[in-house]
Amino acid sequence: MAREYIPPRLDQPRGRRQVSFKPSFDPDAFGRVSEAIARFFGTARYLVIQTVLVIIWIGLNILVITKTIRWDPYPFILLNLAFSTQAAYAAPLILLAQNRQAERDKVQIAEDRNREEMSIATMEYLTREIASLRMAVGEVATRDYVRGELQALLKELEERARDIPRD
Question: What are the CA-CA distances from residue 23 to residues 16, 38, 161 (Å)?
């Protein structure tokens, strides 16, 4: 297992350098490169290039014109070896890229969950506020209510005025 890459700090002077023959690398950079390779393996461009190379390879090894320079006769053992080597490197790179994507997905899911919890809390708060405003508005006289009360008082005053005899 490789050591975790720790970038050098720029706010401190360098200490004594220790000579180590162990390879050290940035796992993030390695992961980014492997993802780029895995992404390239999944493109139509790669398939076209590989198909053209295989056709050229087979063509050069079976044509009568190139009989003197055949490097991989009919069973195409060298071509099979090349494909096996490619698959041996491609599979772990693709798995590494999938693992990195799974980690990103976990982080995204956690962020989505936090955002959803915050949205729910905000909605509950707003619901409580609306309910309290409705209760407060229920106790406040609205314009229509006041207008209706004034009209009722006006009618009552008019009726009383009709009932009172004038001297």
Answer: 18, 24, 107
Q: Which residues span the domain enclosing 146?
A: 27-159
11 part of a folded domain: no
Does residue 85 form part of some domain? yes
User: Is residue 123 in some structural domain?
Assistant: yes
Question: Residue 128 has what pLDDT?
Answer: 93
Model pLDDT for residues 60-99, shown as the tens digit of each residue: 888 867 677 777 878 889 989 999 999 898 888 888 888 8
Q: Model-level pTM?
A: 0.51
Q: How many domains does the chain have?
A: 1
